[in-house]
User: Fold this.
Amino acid sequence: MARAITSQRKALNTALAWGVGLLIFFPILWTILTSFKTEAQAISDPPVFLFFDWTLENYSVVQERSNYGRFLWNSIIIAGGSTILGIIIAVPAAWSMAFVPSKRTKDILLWMLSTKMLPAVGVLYPIYLLFIKLGLLDTKIGLVIVLMLINLPIIVWMLYTYFKEIPGEILEAARMDGATLREEVLYILTPMAIPGIASTLLLNVILAWNEAFWTLNLTAAKAAPLTAFIASYSSPEGLFYAKLSAASTMAIAPILILGWFSQKQLVSGLTFGAVK
Amino acid sequence: MATQHSQPADRLTMAPPAPKPASQPAAADHQSGTKHARTAARLMMAPAVILLLGWMLVPLTMTLYFSFKKFLPLRGGDLGWVGFDNYVRFVSSSAFWPSVQATLVIVGGVLAITVVLGVLLAILLNQPMWGRGVVRILVIAPFFVMPTVSALVWKNMFMDPVNGLLAHVWRAFGAEPLVWLTEASTQSIILIVSWQWLPFAMLILLTAIQSLDSEQLEAAEMDGAPPVKRFAYITLPHLSRAITVVVLIQTIFLLSIFAEIFVTTQGAFGTKTLTYLIFQRVLESQNIGLGSAGGVYAIILANIVAIFLMRIVGKNLDA
Assistant:
């Protein structure tokens, strides 16, 4: 059925798509470029696009002055910790829902999803108060717990979707051979589920890394991750464009790279399987 | 247990490549397995269920509790029960209706922009071209930028009236640069948030569009249907469910956008959304009772949207 498409039309599509793509990407590109300029070039009039004296100075200044490394470390611990903890809790739950479903499985899944819809601001004060009472305010462990809880429904859903695609007869065969439930999970399901778990991990690290309500409201100096670090950079009047750009580039680069790897899982993960 | 094959017409999604039919009966056998397995399954589910139940019930109960109290931690503390006073005061305060308006305008604006541009972009990216993978990567990128970074970059490097890139563009055309975040504050927020969410809409719509049967389109083309009609009668109906999903999911996230406003206008110049208003009542003016009543309103609002989303997702579980 393939129809010959004129290469003229293909060229037109290509030009248009690249134009739009570059336009959408431009703010990121501009930020990256500006991070290599001097502060004077960053605000020069007219703006310079490529032909400036490339410098790495901003990166070292940001690192020295603001202790960027500490914020980065906090981000890694909070995003990584909450995701790993969430997966440890979600794997057994998703496993049991996918392989030993009961009448209530669907209701439980939907209910879990509904907790994700709770607007954060609606429970801001209770969480804030509990954090003070429990001494969790401005601690990494506190944020690990909160971000784990807000992402747990997504983690369960993603894992459930992946587990359901594992053929059941393999489990049957294992049972015939006398595998116990524990062995079944440990030696058969887990290895088969590794790709699914990996993409769940990836997407949730991204979500936790970029989370900017709880991380801004529950941290001060000690546990603040990169979201809060960047927010503190609100210096107006364009004196620090190059440094702001360097800090921004460092904050988004790791996640941009991870994100590009996870674009496929993004759709089913973020729509809870409603679009695959 | 569901099979992937029932009701193909009702399904938006392309069935995942060849789900082995044999697996379904096997899983059903498994389901009727031993009592032991069921008990174990319940135990395995317990931690996640208990944690989420606690995460939902404890703060929710506290918010409800505070919403019926006059509670000012910095000015006298707990001043007793006040019934529905906070609910009435929250709605009758002068800031309430503007905040509802700001919320509706921002959410509606972003939805309109992302859905319309998302459909167009998805159609464009579905055409044959060179380097589609790279273009896709470029378009998706904004979604991975943390909200505080995108807000700050737009605010300083693009919307700054003196040094911002947009100011340079305006001057190049001889126009007076716009003071974006004061003169066109709502539009600026809509622009920033749309930039962040367009990739999401595009990605989901592209996934849906790729499951469209291209032979149907070709047949329509051979029958002489012009592109506009092909779009209106074939592509758009096919996308309707994906569009609904995009709208619902985005609405839930957009209702609670925070960092974009926190970093740019701090709620000034008519950008104080419901979320931001509640945030100010709770953390800035420390009027917990009033803020909690607002929180309850926000929860009810989000739930109304959520019900529709859950219905679609639930249907898909059955399919």
Observations:
- Chain A touches chain B through 107 residues (CB under 8 Å).
- Residues 68-99 of chain A form the longest helix (32 residues).
- Residues 67-232 of chain A form a domain with the MetI-like fold fold (CATH 1.10.3720.10).
